[in-house]
Amino acid sequence: MGSKNKLKRFNQNLSFSNVIQPEREEVTSGEFRFKGKWRQDFFKNDRPIVVELGCGKGEYSVYLAQKYPEKNFVGVDIKGARFWAGAKESLELGLSNVGFLRTQIELIDAIFEENEVDEIWITFPDPQIKFKRTKHRLTNPAFLDRYHTILKPEGQIHLKTDSEFLHGYTLGLLEGKGWEVDYAHHNVYGNPYSPKHVTAIQTHYERLFMEKGRLITYLSFRFPNG
Length: 226
What we know:
The chain is an alpha/beta fold.
């Protein structure tokens, strides 16, 4: 995508009512206006909140918002030019239960209050295979602790990825931290018992992976004691 295209999308995001782009200082200072008030001030209802981390083009957030109108959805990504497509589509569809937030995922516990989130989706993150990149893996221990903080007791996390490495790495961590695995499979499309809401949608990158013959893994888990 050219720089002119990115700038155009960034400017359009500024006019979208469903896009929030706080300055980092606003978030790190503890003054982010929606923390603890997402239902009240942004969605203006008391429905459950589902967060998609690294939402990319926003396909999952938009699809889930259509399928589950009784829930609220927040797509999070640092690259606003990517989720521009999902933000634009959701406005065109008249979806009032989905929003998009441009920020770093490591700030997630400064974005949401303790126990404010009901579910988290992590869809096709960079597996960060090299050991020196461990701190950037979205399921490393530090990130899991942040998710635990913002999730309600029994809140569920979904990980969908083409990386067998990340799938196995995460499973190993969960056992050590006492998280409860609800479902795990190394080939979600090859298992007839896979959850339908997982196989009913394929992101742009997911389709590219599958065309190359890669298997798609899926894992859902929760911390049983809250």
